[in-house]
Specification:
The chain is 37% helix and 11% strand. The chain is an alpha+beta fold and 1402 residues long. Strands 1, 2, 3, 4, 5, 6, 7, 8, 11 and 12 form a ten-stranded mixed sheet that branches. Strands 20, 21, 22, 23, 24 and 25 form a six-stranded antiparallel sheet that branches. A hairpin with a 2-residue loop joins strand 2 and strand 3. Keywords: Nucleus, Transcription, Transcription regulation.
Length: 1402
């Protein structure tokens, strides 16, 4: 046997002698040294001694895994033996355990007639390859045995491809050298080329034909690929998945040449390969083929012959060639082109319904719309269409949608300018809104107060920064703010004043730090993506074919299998067997189904649309295209552009010099007239309203040139759009954008390849519809809302709710000052009284504001530097509205100040405030909101501050903690509180004077005094998770039940020491609890309304009940994954597995969801809801009582015969056809849950075996009548001697898991489908010979001393006997009729006493 070392990349690897026992201890598998191999042949080497040599075995379905990452497969050729472990199915050989190797290897290797067993080889010393046979053999050696590797596991075949190919090449040469030692290079290469291609292998000439051609040097890539395809096509081979149709080429030999040389050299040096006529003692020279192959391979690799200097010279020549080509291309582009004398096709007016609006205002509107869409995310405004935007600024009959758009635009510009980052919290601002919010929407943050008084702030801002507004809009902007100051509403303004106000605010906002930071962030990201080729300014080239799909592995599913380790100390202990995760699916890779060409083109368009904002930012308002006649084309609107091209007349100065437009030019010796300058894109029309013409203006916010020409637009789906594309020259760089965009839009509506080609009219209609769907209108939801639906009462309520959010955001959860807590609670009490009054009063709100200011100031939330100077003026304004101006007597001191009937915190500060010199306007909601904003301007910025509405929107939690309000009575579960504290709240940050959670009952009844919502924060030190903590709701709760008066048994610890008791009473005097509830669902809801908690006892859950449960962040229905929509809400569908008891009822229900039936979750009973009736399981009819005395009718005999036929159809007695059984069982339980196999006698029941045995005995009724259930139980091969009710348990399990299947299969329809024909005239037992139980069989059920109490099969009291179920989970094979894993011990000297199977077929 010629062998060579397996370290394929090491030329010093040598052959290892096959004499077992020659492996030295400590050899780490890098190949035995040549000296050791020679010594093995020396006379002093150990000879074959029976009993002292390693056993020889075979290993099938093997896999090589990384020893330090067992889930990772490694290739054979690229890994070292000491870093791998090997899995497989091992079998012993006849004589291989104790026989002499020479005798075993001299005969064909015959495995013993025993089943293979799963094996894991943890310690592999080395592997070697045997050459000379029909196929090379791969052997590996461990400290205990030699293993011949047979076939790799299907999923591992690709990892052994390289080694198999190299071994086949070498084996072919070895066999040829044995016959002809003078083998020439040409003959040897031809022999190697005749080797069949290994499975899963692809020749180099097919994968990289260019590389193969360069490697050989004397051929072309096409010739190499044609030779490798061997007359076939790639598509044919790919479809057939038969790689043997390929053929190896010389390029493959070049890649493996050094390996072949190394292996043959090792065999010759160790005298394992010799000429046929040479003696064993003679030294023979290496064959000439060895030297020739090494020289040929070296030349092909260009090693030695290609010097560094020559390579540099070639690189230099290649660069010079590229430089010359670019120069020639540049010269051709700079060459004058023949002018196009025909003008471009006319465009459509941008806003035909507002033709009375002049060009200046239309240009400003385009600028504002582009600004609003491009910066929509940083401005936090819903996107709108151009038509909606124009109606808001130019229309006369505005609705709620247009009024909201105007408000949002103005407020957003103010917020960006002021730079208050907590106007919208950090969680809400992460995603731009998609729907507009009306005045009745929940309060989201401080920005909601800004929506009530934006007019006053806009007035101050524009007056201060008026010089930053362009000259055309400056005067009307000042006029607009004057109207606002008089109380006029924006909707009543003229278009000029609306546009002017928006232009002024946007111009100021553009200079803000917020816009600059956003611009810089986008700009840097685009530059980085452009360097890597991930971003392009021009539209993508229309795809003509779908790119080759990427290969992805099938989703891996795994199962637990027991694999015996080689360690002889644990091979016989089943509990110490090694548990390995092994993939159940085939490892062969599956090609992902590629999209159709039409789908891929639509993907191109959508990706292009998604990057519109980045392109707008990077272009800085520049045109996307300029045609040869000077028209400039803009892609305005960001992602709402919808493929439109806005065109502007060429500005003055586009052509250099003052040459006559009619002058001629000479191109290639031919005289042509000069390129004419295009006229306006649309015809001029009279207008009645416009802004003043100021020709000295410069570029405005979007970079559009302010000139008096009218703008036009080319809209997809119109004849003008197509005509423009046909007019443009795609070879002209400045017009290529237009032609590529037109092709992208036009072909995005194509059908599949077999669909008929669209006509021009049909294509335009579809493109028009597509363009409309690309634009998003976030204000469409307010179309049906009346503008007059809001009044002062609603605005007042909104202001109250916003102030409540500010008050409750004071950090009560981290303070230990009880005096501050007392002031906070009293302030909250007075505010709640004003909030819940039958008629909310703005005066009462202003009375509470000083108390809120004091709470914030004492908590360190106010600006200590600037606020003390502004506070007196603020208090003076409050006094003016609360108590009115002081009288002359009060100013002179002859009359006392008015008395205060309510002890409201901070009311004395209002009384002591100074008097204003000038009177104030009447108190309105807008004025009250401005007073609140004056105070908020000095509040410390906190972007983590959230409102209840923002918390619900960001977390998706609209129920539970997201719906708890102050004043509500709730139940607090102690275990949930403690678990949350331990996970999220550091002990050092817990105030000491709060009540100790360890003194709480399991469930406490409390009233909520305060609620604060916070965004995600950085994790605390030494936290279990490295990520940010999720958004949180903090609740301040007051205990309602005294320990002695509680309806629960008191579990609070009472100290015997009176002093400690007094101290504890002082500490817990207020008896407050602070309860944090974090979004995310990792900790079950432990604070809930008390009424909801009491409902748990009224609606107990039972095992098997169908339920639904709401999870955060799920908003899409998918019934295939168990996600259903009920009453507009999305839930996960599941089932109650079991319920446990607990005094607090927290996490007492185990639920298994349909989306992940392999996993379970413990939830609280109040978190789940009963599923609707349509999701409940169908009720399967159970078996009727069996009449033991009734004689069998012909119908009964026919049913028995049918059952026996079905048993044989499903694999009786061999146990095969398991797949058919599983399929029929799934059909029988269609629409409901399929019961899992129960645990019977300590192991999972083999339902297939039980079913075919029961059916073979005549079915459920016959087995019950004849008391054959213990006969069925015995077929499982379990020990029933200690089981007292095995028969009863077996029958009950059959009724639950298998009886519906019996009813299904014995139905007339299924009998016909199965092709079962029964002759009623024949006895069923006669039709199935040898199927009747033995006549001398003594049923143990009828014995008196059998210790079994299941003689009466209908006695339901025997249910207690089902305790035979072993609760301990076993990791054993569920198919009990398969070969047992305990009958093979590779180190046991004898296996004769072990059984091959625990089931004997009849």
């Amino acid at each position: 046997m010629a062998t060579a070392g397996a370290d394929v990349d090491d030329e010093d690897a040598v052959a290892r002698d096959t004499t077992r026992g020659a492996t030295r201890e400590g050899d780490e598998g890098d190949g035995a040294a040549a000296e050791a191999a020679a010594a093995a042949r020396d006379a002093t080497a150990p000879s074959e001694v029976e009993g002292q040599t390693l056993p020889m075995r075979v290993l099938d379905e093997y896999e090589f895994r990384d020893k330090f990452a067992e889930g990772k497969a490694v290739s054979v050729h690229g890994s070292r033996p000491n870093r791998v472990l090997v899995l497989g199915r091992a079998r012993k050989l006849e004589g291989g355990e104790h026989g002499l190797p020479s005798e075993v290897l001299a005969a064909p290797l015959t495995p013993q007639d025993k089943p293979p067993h799963a094996l894991k080889l943890m310690e592999v010393h080395d592997w070697t390859i045997k050459y000379g046979g029909d196929e090379p053999e791969l052997w590996l050696v461990t400290p205990r045995a030699w293993y011949k590797l047979l076939n790799p596991a299907p999923r591992f075949e690709k990892y052994v491809t390289v080694t198999t190919r190299r071994a086949n090449f070498t084996n072919a040469i070895v066999r040829a050298l044995v016959k002809n030692w003078e083998l020439s290079l040409e003959e040897g290469l031809d022999i190697i080329l005749g080797v069949p291609v290994v499975a899963h292998d692809v020749p180099v000439a097919v994968k990289t034909p260019t590389k193969a051609a360069k490697m050989l040097g004397d051929t072309t890539a096409e010739a190499q690929k044609e030779a490798a395809l061997n007359g076939c096509t790639e598509e044919e081979i790919r479809e057939s998945k038969d790689t043997s149709a390929y053929k190896y080429t010389h390029a493959d030999i070049v890649g493996d040449g050094f390996f072949i040389v190394s292996q043959i050299e090792t065999l010759v040096r160790c005298k394992a390969l010799r000429p046929p006529t040479a003696s064993e003692e003679a030294d023979v020279p290496a064959p000439q083929f060895l030297t020739a192959l090494q020289t040929w391979t070296t030349e092909k690799h260009q090693l030695g012959s290609a010097t560094k200097a020559s390579r540099l010279e070639r690189d230099r020549a290649r660069r010079e060639k590229l430089r010359a080509e670019k120069k020639a291309e540049k010269e051709s582009e700079s060459k004058p082109r023949v002018p196009r004398l025909e003008p471009p096709p006319p465009a459509s007016p941008i806003l035909p319904e507002y033709s009375h609006i002049g060009p200046h205002l239309q240009a400003e509107l385009l600028t504002l719309w582009d600004f609003a869409q491009v910066f929509a995310s940083v401005m936090y405004c819903p996107r709108s269409t151009l038509e909606r935007f124009a109606k808001a600024f130019f229309g006369s009959d505005l609705g709620a949608a247009e009024a909201t758009l105007l408000r949002d635009f103005m407020v957003s510009c103010l917020r960006v300018t002021e730079g208050r980052i907590d106007s919208i919290d950090q969680e809400t601002i992460r995603s731009a809104p998609t729907r507009a919010r009306w005045w009745d929407a929940p309060v989201l943050g401080l920005n909601d107060i800004g929506e009530l008084d934006w007019q006053d702030r806009a007035n101050n801002l524009i007056v201060e920064f008026q010089m930053g507004v362009n000259a055309r809009m400056r005067k009307p902007a000042l006029e607009a703010v004057a109207k606002l100051d008089k109380g006029e509403v924006l909707e009543s303004f003229s278009p000029v004043h609306r546009i002017a106000l928006a232009v002024a605010l946007s111009s100021i906002a553009l200079e803000s730090e917020t816009i600059r930071e956003y611009f810089t962030e986008i700009y840097d990201d685009v530059r980085a993506r452009r360097r890597t080729g991930d971003f392009h300014s021009n539209p993508p080239t229309l795809a003509t074919e779908v790119p080759k799909p990427t290969e992805e592995k099938k989703k891996e599913t795994s199962k637990e299998i027991n694999v015996k380790d080689e360690n002889p100390e644990v091979v016989d202990d089943a509990d110490e067997s090694v548990s390995m995760e092994v993939d159940e699916t085939d490892a062969s890779e599956e090609l992902v189904k590629p999209p159709t060409l039409a789908d891929y083109r639509r993907e191109q368009l959508m990706k292009w649309k998604s990057e519109a904002v980045e392109r707008a930012v990077i272009s800085r308002g520049k045109p996307v295209a300029v045609d040869e006649q000077g028209r400039r084309y803009f892609a305005l609107g960001g992602t709402n552009n919808a493929g439109r091209l806005f065109v502007e007349t060429a500005p003055l100065g586009w052509y250099d010099g003052d040459e006559d437009a009619a002058s001629s030019q000479v191109i290639d010796g031919v005289e042509y007239p000069k390129q004419p300058m295009a006229g306006p894109p649309v015809e001029d029309a009279p207008f009645s309203e416009d802004a003043a013409n100021t020709p000295d203006c410069r570029r405005n916010v979007s970079g559009l040139v302010e000139c008096a020409s009218r703008w036009g637009v080319y809209t997809p789906g119109t004849v003008e759009y197509d005509a423009l594309s046909y007019w443009c020259n795609p070879k002209y760089d400045n017009e290529r954008y237009i032609t590529k965009l037109h092709r992208l839009m036009s072909h995005a509506v194509d059908g599949d390849a077999d669909a008929p080609e669209l006509s021009d009219d049909d294509r335009r209609k579809k493109v028009e519809i597509l363009s409309e769907t690309l634009a998003m209108d976030g204000y469409a939801n307010l179309d049906d809302v009346a503008l007059g639906s809001v009044d002062d009462a609603k605005l007042t309520s909104r202001l109250f709710n916003a102030v409540k959010f500010i008050l409750h955001s004071a950090p009560f959860w981290r303070t230990g000052d009880m005096r501050w807590i007392d002031r906070f609670i009293r302030t909250c009490t007075h505010f709640e009284s004003a909030l819940n009054a039958s008629e909310q009063s703005l005066v009462r709100l202003l009375k509470v504001l000083p108390g809120i200011e004091i709470v914030c100031a004492q908590a360190g939330l106010m600006d200590d530097v600037a606020w003390p100077d502004a506070k007196p003026t603020w208090l003076a304004q409050l006094r003016y509205y609360v108590f009115g101006p002081r009288t002359e007597a009060e100013l002179e001191g002859t009359t006392a100040a008015p008395e205060v009937s309510e002890p409201i915190p901070g009311i004395n500060d209002i009384l002591a405030a100074p008097e204003l010199l000038d009177p104030l306007p009447p108190l309105t909601v807008r004025r009250a909101a401005n007073l609140v904003n004056q105070f908020l301007r000095f509040l410390v910025q906190d972007p983590q501050r959230m409102s209840q509405g923002a918390f619900q929107m960001c977390t998706g939690v609209s129920h539970g903690v997201g719906a708890i309000n102050t004043g509500e009575v709730v139940a607090v579960i102690k275990r949930g509180l403690v678990k949350t504290y331990n996970r999220y709240v550091d002990k050092k940050s817990r105030p000491r004077n709060w009540i100790d959670v360890n003194t709480l009952r399991p469930v406490e009844r409390c009233v909520v005094l305060g609620t604060a919502y916070r965004g995600s924060e950085a994790p605390r030190r030494n936290a279990a998770s490295d990520g940010d903590t999720p958004p949180c709701a903090w609740l301040m709760c007051l205990l309602l039940d005294d320990p002695e008066l509680s309806q629960f048994p008191s579990t609070r610890r009472q100290s015997a020491d009176a002093e400690q008791a007094d101290a504890k009473e002082a500490k817990d005097e207020r008896r407050l609890i602070i309860a944090p509830l974090y979004a995310g669902g990792d900790i079950a809801e432990y604070v809930l309304p008390w009424s909801k908690y009491q409902e748990v006892d009224e609606k107990p859950w039972d095992g098997g009940s169908r339920i639904i449960m709401h999870f955060e962040g799920v908003d899409a229905e998918n019934e295939a994954r168990g996600i259903v929509s009920v009453d507009g809400c999305v839930y996960y569908l599941g089932r109650v597995r079991k319920v446990r008891s607990s005094p607090d009822r927290w996490e007492t229900v185990m639920v298994v969801f349909d989306s992940d039936p392999e996993d379970y979750m413990w939830v609280s009973p109040w978190e789940i809801i009963a599923a609707p009736e349509k999701y409940h399981d169908p009720v399967h009819e159970g078996p009727a009582p069996v009449d033991h005395e009734r004689e069998l009718s012909p119908e009964d005999m026919t049913l028995i015969a049918q059952c026996k036929a079905i048993a044989r159809r499903l694999g009786w007695p061999s146990g095969d056809h398991r797949r058919d059984f599983d399929k029929f069982r799934a059909e029988a339980f269609a629409g409901g849950v399929i019961p899992q196999a129960p645990i019977f006698c300590g192991a999972q029941m083999n339902l297939h075996r039980v079913f075919i045995e029961a059916m073979h005995l005549g079915g459920y009724e016959q087995v019950t009548r004849c008391k054959f259930w213990k006969v069925v139980a015995r077929t499982l091969g379990r020990d029933l001697s200690t089981q007292t009710s095995a028969s009863f348990a077996m029958r009950k399990y059959y009724e639950k898991c298998l009886f519906p299947l019996e009813k299904y299969l014995t139905s007339a329809e299924m009998i016909e489908n199965l092709g079962i024909v029964i002759d009623a005239s024949t006895d069923p037992m006669d039709r199935f010979p040898a199927s009747r139980p033995a006549t001398d069989f003594d049923d143990d059920d009828d014995r008196v001393d059998d210790g079994d109490d299941d003689d009466d099969m209908d006695d339901e009291d025997d249910a207690d006997g089902m305790d035979v179920v072993d609760k301990k989970k076993k990791e054993e094979d569920a198919d009990d009729y398969k070969i047992s894993d305990d009958d093979f011990d590779e180190d046991d000297p004898s296996d004769s006493g072990e059984s091959d199977s625990d089931f004997k077929g009849r």
